[in-house]
Design goal:
alpha/beta; single chain; about 50% helix; about 5% strand; eight-stranded mixed beta sheet; binds nicotinamide-adenine-dinucleotide; about 1000 residues
Amino acid sequence: MRYPLVVLLVLLAAPGPGLARRSGGRFGGTPRRQFTDRQLDSMKTGWLEVVAGRNREASFRTSHDLSTTLFSRVRSQPGHALDFPKLKGKAAPLRDGVATPEVMKDWHGVREGKLSAATFRKRHPDVRATDVLALQRSVRNLGAPPRTGRAPLIPEDKLGRLRMLWPQVERGKATQKSVLEQLGIPAHRLRAYRKANPGELRPATRHPRPGSRYEQKGTYSASQLAAARELYARYHRGEIKDLKQLKPALKKLGITTTGQGLAYLRKLDPRAFCSKTTFTKQNHGAMIDELVRIASDHPHVIRKWSDLLELVGKDRQFNARFGKQNLALESWIVTKDREGERRLYSVMERIGTQVGKDSGPKPGTVSASHTRPEPTLATSTGPRSRRESARDLARALEGKTPSKSTLEQVVARLARDDKNLSSRKKWMGVRSEYDGVYPELSRWNFDAHRPYSLRYVARWTEAAHQAGAGASYEKIASIFKRSPEYREDGRLPPKRSGTAQMAQGNPELVSSWSTRRTYQRTRQLLELLRTAPAGETLYGMRGQLKQIGLSYRYAHKWLGQMSPAEAEQHGMKRVTFEQLKRGGFKGLGQARDPGFDPGAEPPGVDMKLVRDILDTPRMPPMLEYAIKRLDGRRPFEFQNVMFVNHRYSDIVSLVDAMARAGMEYSNATFVSTPYPFRDAVTYQLEKRGVNTIVPRQNMRSYEKSVEQGIRRMLALHEQQRQKWGNGKPILIMDDGGMASKIIGEKFRSDIGKFRIVEVTAAGHRLAREFQKQYGRLPFVYYSIAYTRLKRKVTSQFYGSRVADRVLNLIPQTGQKLQNKRACVIGGGPMGIYAGVRLREKGYDVTFVDPDPKAQRKLRWLKFDIKPIEQALPGRGIVLGMTGYRALGARELALIDSGAFVAQGSSKRNEFDMSAFERMAKKTELPRSDGLSQKSFTYSFRGGKKLHFLGDGWTINHDGSLHGTPMRDIQLELGLYFETAAQAAATPLGKTGTFREVTPQVQWQYHRMWKQLTGR
Ligand SMILES: NC(=O)c1ccc[n+]([C@@H]2O[C@H](COP(=O)([O-])OP(=O)(O)OC[C@H]3O[C@@H](n4cnc5c(N)ncnc54)[C@H](O)[C@@H]3O)[C@@H](O)[C@H]2O)c1
């Protein structure tokens, strides 16, 4: 054993100079060969000829007696790799010093055949084959290798003999194979020769040799032939792949497949036993008929050629007749139609489908619209994109204290090699376009006339309210200066006109400080006169007037000019004012009004709205993170966006984030879901310019509103098309699938203009049905409903919120909870988290869920699972969490009287409420938290009473301003935003699949959220 090991080690350690080390396998493999330096040298010269295009790789290998394996071993040796580069694939970069005029001239000579490769190597010993290959690819006009001089396909002498022998082949006296073998001509050469010289050396017509056994009829039995026909039919349909598979199957039937066998079959029944090519040719018309049928049946779901192919693959009729056919754009079947009758082609064009490179995307078709190339961030010093300029500017300004002069200095420095910043107008444009995605830029806005934000205005009113009745501008301003809104904006509203201007734009939020002062002082003055001791004169009230901030003379004059109508506006009855006037404005001695509030704001200012605006959360860190990830891209710039969503306060941030990433508020429509919400959210959206549609609380009105929204988006699209030739595609942020459903039902012809992002399981399910019904998903479709993040993390917020809201509401109704046993129907993510929360609060929870997968999870969490018949009786709380119809009249009978019934999925589908309404009398239940959602006791015949919290609507939407706290919901908002950005960047043609953000990105969001919230 020891001896061979030593030899092996010696061999490996010392390959010897100039020897290519090769590892010959012990069992077979390439025989060991060593190359001398001379051999290697001649190989290198030979390969240069190949690189120059003067020789082919195969003949190079033959002349050097190299197998492919051996050659690949040689060229993989580090010492030789540069002399044997691969001709295809990526070339190595061009080395410095190679592209000299001499090298280029000589290499040109080699390619032209004027200089030998050996001479070239001698003249330029440092230039290797890799270098000239790189040279060839990077420098044009090096001279194309001459095409002439190539060996003829078949050498003249062989061709002469072939021509002589060919009639034998034609007559069937000899086979083509034997003749070619005899002459040493490869079959592919003959094929190429025939192609180049059609008409010559035609293929032999196959027919049974005279006198052979196939001449006699009845060689095969009827059953044999029937079975063979079936095999052939399968072969034609592509179920049997090729002749290699067909022949053994025929052989099994006892049919001869060699020699004249198949030709005999063909003679018996030319149609049934025809070749595949003949089958395709014979059936071309019928296939095109079928394709036209399929295309015309699905115009709304076909956007591109592959969509048609997907439908053909699923079409039973086509498959039964023709099976798998090559229908690619360049295939024979399609090309024939395109170049001939264009029957299928014209249908596809009519639909507006992109049909091949030659016709290109037609203007106005969806596939052509808005596929703008991404601006790239080059590191070179070439012309910079606006995005690059914005990024440079933001980086240069970061950390500096904002001042006009600093800004000008920084811009002047950058403008030296950036044309986008070369004039004031230009850099202001860059800044205002990109300050959403590079928030640093927004700190440097010194425009004194920029509008005040709603939050700023609301904060001013709150400061005024805090400053008290009749407060002066200075007092209000000193309080306002302590607010974050002042810190952000840095401006005080100018004393003379600032608040008046604010009031003009937002009369619901603010009145000018002087109007407010006059209003409040007047009210106080009138109240003072009304309650002063009877008969006391105005002069006698000087002291009190001073407290209000009025002099006697001013008060006297003011009262003299006041009309009863004005007094009424300030809260005093006309008769009382007239009585005052008649008595010469002396005290009336009336009783004090305990409800009189001297600080009441002027009519029109809605303090609840002011507070709701200030309570609306600011943009959360997760959305800032999502924007930062864009690195300056503005994905919503070329989108019209429609939101179908809840109107909780957090949505304002999402809409704002999308606007920062390019969305125009005026190109957005917001349709609210049909639940009770606060008007503050609508107000804030409308004020930003978003068209908002609020349905009444029923499904019909909701459907109508969504339809109205879609119509508006399409009208906008059309306006844009007329203006610019192309409308922006419509991105729909859908909650519950209503928009996709309506588009499928009513807007099929416009289907390709939409991209959809879905949030809920219910909407996702609708899309699945849609896919089943129409054959394929016809739009770009993203869903976050079943992302890991939603299932594992955010469902928790909603699920536990459902349980919390039920438990909060029960004590407000004044009804007794029968027991602490609860039944949760539906063990999906939502149900599970509701169940977990109820259990934490001390409830005994039983689940109903027929799905084995859900059951496994529930068992693992140690929950009780029962069939509905056993789970409903004896429960004080019944909670529906399925998203489907969970309770009908039959199940209702199983619930104990006095139970609280609620649902936390969506809308009002979970229970058959309209049937229950017919069966029972409803009495409203009280609630003390001031929210607008109503609950009812249903009294059924026979005395049974059930308390339906939220009246069968989902309990999760009860009219509060906030849904899930922003701290938690920001994770889902971030994911929603990221999904929307990805959807916007997905070409409109990429339809047909359910897409979601990759798990890695979800994981990054989750990690970030955990860091931010410390959870
Ligand atoms: N209100 C909200 O804030 C809110 C938030 C998120 C999701 N949702 C909605 O809540 C619903 C449930 O969400 P999910 O993520 O758990 O969905 P899911 O589809 O994953 O789970 C539903 C579960 O219910 C079961 N189920 C279906 N029909 C049933 C029946 N008749 N009886 C018993 N079990 C039945 C299913 O087997 C499944 O396990 C969805 O409709 C979703 O859209 C609402």
